[in-house]
Amino acid sequence: MEHEEFAEIAFFRAIQEAGARALLIGRRALVLLGLPVLTADYDFWIAIEDIAIFNDAAAKSDLHPTVEPDTARRRGRYVLKNDEHVDVLVARSVTTVDGIDVAFETVWPRRRTIALTPETELHIPHLDDLILTKRFAARPKDLEDVRLLTILKSASNT
Amino acid sequence: MTGRSTDIAAFANRELGLDDVRAYLEAPVSDDEREQTIALIQWFTRRYPTPLERLAYVRRAYARWRPNAS
pTM for the full model? Predict the structure, then answer.
C-alpha cells in the first residue's frame, strides 16, 4: 500500500466502530488542534485491555502488530506497520521526564472528541494532558511541541 | 533518507538530560514567539478550517517533503 493511498479515515472509523479506547497523541493531535507541524507517523495511547480489538480494527487497513499482545503489554508499547507506521502506547501510566505520573484512566475521561466526518470521530487528550504526553520523552522536538501547545492554550484562554 | 537528513533526524530525536529538559520547559515564551505562533495557527485554521482538511494537508506536506529527503 502506497503512503499516499492509505485510507486514513477508514482506519479511524474502524477504530471507532471497534469501540477501542484509543487516544490519538503525537503530532497529528497537534495538527487537529490547528498547529501545522510535520509528521510521518501515527501515535496512539490505548487502554491496555483493548489491544486485541485495536489490532483487529487496524488489520482492516492492513496494519499489523510487530509483537504479540502479551509482549506489547510487558513493553508498554508496540508498532503497527505496513507502509504506514503506527506507534501504540499501552502503558497504564507513564511518567514524564520531569517526574509527573500520567494514567490512562485519568486521561481517558477528560478526552476531547473531534468529528472528522459525520460518521467518524477521533479522540485526543485534553490539551493539558496532551502537553503531558509530550513530556514522556526528552527529545527536543517534543519539547518544542510543548511550547507550541502552551502558546495555543494561552491563546485559547484569552 | 540522505546522510544529512538522517543526521538531522538523529539530532531532533536525541534524548536530553533532565537539566536541558527543565531549561526548555522553563524558558519564558517571548512576545515575538507567541505572536508568530498564533499567526501560524490563525493562518492554518483559516486555510484548513476543518480537522479533516488539516490531516489531509499534513499527509500532502509529508509526501512533498519525503521525496526531497531521499
Answer: 0.90
Shortest Cα–Cα distance, B60 to chain A (Å): 8
pLDDT in tens, A101-155: 999 999 999 999 999 999 999 999 999 999 999 999 888 899 999 999 999 999 9
Longest dimension (CA), chain B: 39
Domain that holds residue B64: 3-69
Please give the ipTM for the structure prediction.
Answer: 0.87
Torsion (CA) B45, B50, B51, B57 in degrees, nearest 10? -70
Structural domains of chain A ordered from first start: 3-93+101-126 (3.30.460.40)
Q: C-alpha angle A149/A118/A122, rounded to 5°?
A: 35
Cell 492554518 found at: B44
With beta carbons under 8 A apart, name residues in chain A contacting B29: 147, 150-151, 154
